[in-house]
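Lab notebook, bench 4. The sequencing result for the construct came back, and we need a structural model before the next group meeting so we can plan mutations. Quick request posted to the team channel:

Model the 3D structure of this chain.
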Amino acid sequence: MLQLGAWSTHFITRDLPESAEPAGYLRLPPAEWERRLDDLGIPDGTPYLLSPSFVYDVRLNSYFRRVDFLEGPLNSQNNRASALARFLNFLHSHRGGKGW
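Done. Here's the predicted structure in C-alpha cell form:
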C-alpha cells in the first residue's frame, strides 16, 4: 500500500491502457511508450522508484538499468528496489522530510 510521504517501488509494464485523450503533461503519446522502452532496452518488470512527492529521479533510477542489475533474477531486482525504497524512507522520515 502506498503511504503518503513515502518512497514507493513501481515496475515497468507495456500493458498500459490507452485513453482517448492523452494527458497533456506526457511527453510521449501512449502509443510510443513501448517503442521508447525497447529503444532504451528496458524490459517489463524493471523496478523504478518515485519520491514522496511522486518525482522520478533519473540518476537514482539509472541504477535499475545497469547491465549487472538487469541480468539478475527478477525477485532479486525487486528485493533490491524494495530495500532501497525502505532505506530512502528511513532517511526521509528521520531527517524531517528533507530530500536524500
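Strands lie at 8-11, 47-50.
Will bring this to the meeting.
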